[in-house]
Amino acid sequence: MASKKVLIVYAHQSSGSFNSAAKDAAVEVLTAKGCTVEVSDLYAMKFKATATAEDITGKVKNADHFCYGEETKLAWEAGKLTADITEEQHKLTEADLVIFQFPMYWFTVPAIMKGWMDRVLTLGFAFTHEKRYSQGIFKDKKAMLSFTTGSQESMFSANGINGDMNVTLWPLQNGILHYCGFQVLAPQIFWAPSHVPSEARGTMLEGWRTRMQGLLGENPLAFTPLDCFDGEKGYQLKPEVHEKHAAKEFGLTVGIHLGKALPPNNQMKAGV
Q: Flavodoxin-like fold domain location, by residue (predicted)?
């Protein structure tokens, strides 16, 4: 891990929180292993969560029909994005690994972190029509989610009231991280730390510390490569790929399931 650069995008309001402890553990362990670690503490930064025309300095191309994606692409090319965005883009460009540390809100990231994703991962900088998914701009970088839940693990199972956590994670891990090309490492999930004894929370943090010893050497989660889809036919899976998996018990991934049973732990463990 020597000389690797790590960016931790952190979203919690309290320095006394479990999320803060998880973030601090990551900084401590990865720094000790020779990494350069930078933290974007979104609440402390008062990071703007809304994607608006104010994210562009100077005039926009079409003020009457403002299109955020197109306008920020032009602004990025012209160096006219606001300083808070360009600073985060610079951190991201430098990073080998990005860790998103947060408490799960309503089955996704907190609004301030979604705002970071909306505003920092701009068209042109983070993705283009040609460069996305397995051929994405950040294909040489790794990213992962590290988060706490309010519900216990059993509630996020295939038989649990919240539903399968693998399904919950698909929009974030496939639709944002993998979409931008990141190699997505398995998530670090801290199940309901507020509902367990302090000793159990300590064990959770020790598990995280242990995992970080080899984190950058981990294999990423499996996603179906872009070239398995036919761009001229609405990006449908190519017939030969479909046929190859026709007799298999499980679908390819959580999202591309081919009408079959979902592959177990597809969004939670590598190598499955």
A: 4-193
